[in-house]
Amino acid sequence: MDFQATIDADGRIEPRDAMPDGYRKTLIRQIAQHAHSEIIGMQPEGNWISRAPSLRRKAILMAKVQDEAGHGLYLYAAAETLGVDRADLLDMLHSGRQKYSSIFNYPTLTWADIGAIGWLVDGAAIVNQVPLCRCSYGPYARAMVRVCKEESFHQRQGFEILYTLCNGTPGQKAMAQDALNRWWWPSLMMFGPPDTASTHSEQSMAWGIKRHSNDELRQRFVDMTVPQADVLGLRVPDDGLVHQDGRYRFTEPDYTELYDVVKGNGPCNQQRLSHRVKAHEDGAWVREAAAAYAAKKEARAA
Amino acid sequence: MIEPLWEVFVRSRRGLSHTHVGSLHAPDATMALRNARDVYTRRQEGVSIWVVRAADITASSPDEKDEFFDPAGDKVYRHPTFYEVPEGVEHL
């Protein structure tokens, strides 16, 4: 079967199949950006590992941050099946030629932010990622199945952090409310620009890479999240929020902020990227030592 | 320096075959196994792991898959459904 027939029959494209250049390029861009987001996403949370309020919370947070590294690796492996090298993708991240999700350019100021990231950011990621489990490109879809299984732990641990704070002292509850106030709008922006301004959406839908529009997914996220905020006893910081016919009408986020953060002007863009580059450079001697050891063993065996 | 690519196969439990789960980079087989343990079995997804250098795998070509697999197409007599079973015959 040729490419279009496979897509039309809702089949899966596999690595060595013939595929249009644009399909390959779109996937490389999207999967690489997704992988970069996973590993950059380790930073805002890693920030709180040493300050987690208990050993239990610390162990959980470490497991979660390790999962994010794992998600990055699944995704880099999926991208490599398209004929690119992970080292080149990392170079493009480090030199700013490829992007990562702009949500990770916001700071984690309090412990409640760790709860808000798990609940809102991972919650939004799940809404985005579940449809990707049916993406037309096999290796990406399979990687997303693994990622989605693990994300639900992330979301629940975040909700649990906030639930505990919301049932604690007034000061703890205020801290949770403050985190929701700061993360609500950036979380809504995670679904990308509105459909009327989205540049890649139509072609991606035709190729079966994307299954739902940005606005559909954003609506789904709001409908899912607002009742959860009610359980926490927190107020979603949107005066325009109205429950109507089983759905929530909500105020759109300020997309000029999204574009500005994507351009590099968010509160932490510079810090995130320079930390990533430093970690990569600091690890160079480990990679070199491992390669030298492997070469030595191979020479002895020969 | 480019670390070789390894394909990872995991046996999810005893009684099942190893199944391909993905790939990773590592300088040698020992490191590939350790990395595979961390990347692909953080939640007890396996009881055994194989790693194989991706460069050592020979694969059939997707371009020639028709010629390659067609010869099986006309040998319907290889399937039990090819045979007519007379009325009343059981356990066949």
UniProtKB/TrEMBL annotation, chain A:
<dbReference type="InterPro" id="IPR012347">
    <property type="entry name" value="Ferritin-like"/>
</dbReference>
<dbReference type="GO" id="GO:0097266">
    <property type="term" value="F:phenylacetyl-CoA 1,2-epoxidase activity"/>
</dbReference>
<protein>
    <submittedName>
        <fullName>Ring-1,2-phenylacetyl-CoA epoxidase subunit PaaA</fullName>
    </submittedName>
</protein>
<dbReference type="InterPro" id="IPR007814">
    <property type="entry name" value="PaaA_PaaC"/>
</dbReference>
<dbReference type="InterPro" id="IPR011881">
    <property type="entry name" value="PaaA"/>
</dbReference>
<dbReference type="GO" id="GO:0005829">
    <property type="term" value="C:cytosol"/>
</dbReference>
<dbReference type="InterPro" id="IPR052703">
    <property type="entry name" value="Aromatic_CoA_ox/epox"/>
</dbReference>
<dbReference type="InterPro" id="IPR009078">
    <property type="entry name" value="Ferritin-like_SF"/>
</dbReference>
<dbReference type="GO" id="GO:0010124">
    <property type="term" value="P:phenylacetate catabolic process"/>
</dbReference>
<dbReference type="Pfam" id="PF05138">
    <property type="entry name" value="PaaA_PaaC"/>
</dbReference>
TrEMBL record, chain B:
<dbReference type="InterPro" id="IPR038693">
    <property type="entry name" value="PaaB_sf"/>
</dbReference>
<dbReference type="Pfam" id="PF06243">
    <property type="entry name" value="PaaB"/>
</dbReference>
<protein>
    <submittedName>
        <fullName>Ring-1,2-phenylacetyl-CoA epoxidase subunit PaaB</fullName>
    </submittedName>
</protein>
<dbReference type="InterPro" id="IPR009359">
    <property type="entry name" value="PaaB"/>
</dbReference>
